[in-house]
Amino acid sequence: MTTHRLAIYDMDRTVTFSGTYTGFLIHVAGHMAPWRLVLFPCVILLMLAYVVKLISRQRLKELNQALMIGFNVERAKLMPHVESYADRVIARNLRAGAVAQIAQDRADGYRLVLATASYRLYVEPIARRLGFDAVIATDHLSQDLRYVRAKIAGENCYDTGKLRMIKAWMASQAIDRAQAHIRAYSDHVSDAPMLEFADIPFASNPHKPLARLATERGWTRVDWG
């Protein structure tokens, strides 16, 4: 018997047109400490270091935040800029088709969950504006403290780690998988574990590797403008 309906969405390039993390760093640096913008070439170098596997994806995010925002930032000073960045995303970086599907899932009685590798710090304000019921995201070590540290708590919410975090969230909500019906949406092949976990997986605006996998697995493809 199905007692829980969940619609789980990736965020970057699924709900949004483009990634949000670099934009977040630039937005906050530009408002809080514009001098840090001169460090942006270092961000590009760190991205290259990640591509050639000199650093992990998790470490990349921590170092970029330390460069562009600071290793320790007072939350009260940071949050107005987090909120204004959420407003910017809503105004300029949403796929209309994704917004329509979110509304349809809500109308169909699904609980809306945003599951993303992006930081909870700025994902929650975006999710709140879109009417999501829950957020599963990468957490800061100081998530509930006065200062935001450039350090990730636990796992980066990515690939198999994202699926583990989804399962942990479901357990915390007393949601038995056998009694749940899950729709899942993503643009990227790294979310294959999440899509395989779903009852109805959607390859949403997929890049080529996911498009190929969706064809092989018979997953529905949607292309949202």
From TrEMBL:
InterPro entries: HAD-like_SerB (IPR050582), HAD-like_sf (IPR036412), HAD_hydro_SerB1 (IPR006385), HAD_sf (IPR023214). It holds the Pfam family HAD. The keyword Metal-binding applies. SUPFAM superfamilies: HAD-like. The chain crosses the membrane at residues 33-52. GO terms for molecular function: hydrolase activity; metal ion binding. The keyword Iron-sulfur does not apply. Keywords: Hydrolase, Magnesium, Membrane, Metal-binding, Transmembrane, Transmembrane helix. PANTHER family: PHOSPHATASE RV3661-RELATED, PHOSPHOSERINE PHOSPHATASE. This is Haloacid dehalogenase. It comes from Sphingobium cupriresistens LL01.
